Amino acid sequence: MIRNNKTFKAWIAIAIVIAILLIDQIIKIEVKTNMTLGEAKRVTDWFYIEFIENNGMAYGMKFINKLVLSLFRLFAIGFIGYYLAKIIKKNEAPIGYIVLIAMVLAGAAGNLIDCLFYGLIFDASTPFTVSQFVPFGEGYSTFLHGKVVDMFYFPIIQTTWPEWMPYVGGSEYVFFSPVFNFADACISVGVVTLLLFYRKQLEVLFSNK
């Protein structure tokens, strides 16, 4: 069957990576060059396009030095890419597994592009000015130090903690509060689905068999 052909699997993986990278970068560039930093556009009561930038990991997390994080991303993407090529060559993994690994690879690469090049090709975004393209190397930062663009905000539940609750009583509570991008979503969907449906393949990966 053609679906079990390794050439078919390779082209599927390549198509997924290219499609995700294109969609991710188109969205990010559109937001960065048309919105001021911190600007939010209401789509519905539970969905906003809100432009933020971060130096950290997915969903704005930050606990690693920026340079170290960028180098770690490079290493991780290289490892995932090597692993994806390896399982395609062996032609033993199901197509669904390959699709999900390609999603994770593309998502990681999408955010890495921001870190590698955005500081070189854009001037700084501020709450008062919209960022624009600049000659290469004349941007707001240096190689590996670009900021990741995030924009999807889903405050599905907005309420206040009861006054009687210690520490948080009376404080605002928002679910879901992180602002993220398309690449983050691809990584999250890919990882969660892998854990749910492809544990056997992951066990083989992490046991080095």
From TrEMBL:
Subcellular location: Cell membrane
Keywords of this entry: Aspartyl protease, Cell membrane, Hydrolase, Lipoprotein, Membrane, Protease, Transmembrane, Transmembrane helix
Major subcellular site: membrane
Chemical reaction(s) catalysed: Release of signal peptides from bacterial membrane prolipoproteins. Hydrolyzes -Xaa-Yaa-Zaa-|-(S,diacylglyceryl)Cys-, in which Xaa is hydrophobic (preferably Leu), and Yaa (Ala or Ser) and Zaa (Gly or Ala) have small, neutral side chains
Biological-process GO terms, alphabetical: proteolysis
Active site feature: D150, D184
EC number: 3.4.23.36
Uppermost EC category: hydrolase
Topological type in the membrane: Multi-pass membrane protein
Pathway linked to the protein: Protein modification; lipoprotein biosynthesis (signal peptide cleavage)
GO MF annotations, alphabetized: aspartic-type endopeptidase activity
Stretches that traverse the bilayer: 7-27, 67-85, 97-121, 173-198
Highest taxon of the lineage: Bacteria
GO CC terms: plasma membrane
Family under the similarity heading: Belongs to the peptidase A8 family.
Record's function text: This protein specifically catalyzes the removal of signal peptides from prolipoproteins.
Protein known as: Lipoprotein signal peptidase
Organism, scientific name: Leyella stercorea
Lineage: Bacteria, Pseudomonadati, Bacteroidota, Bacteroidia, Bacteroidales
Gene (UniProt): lspA
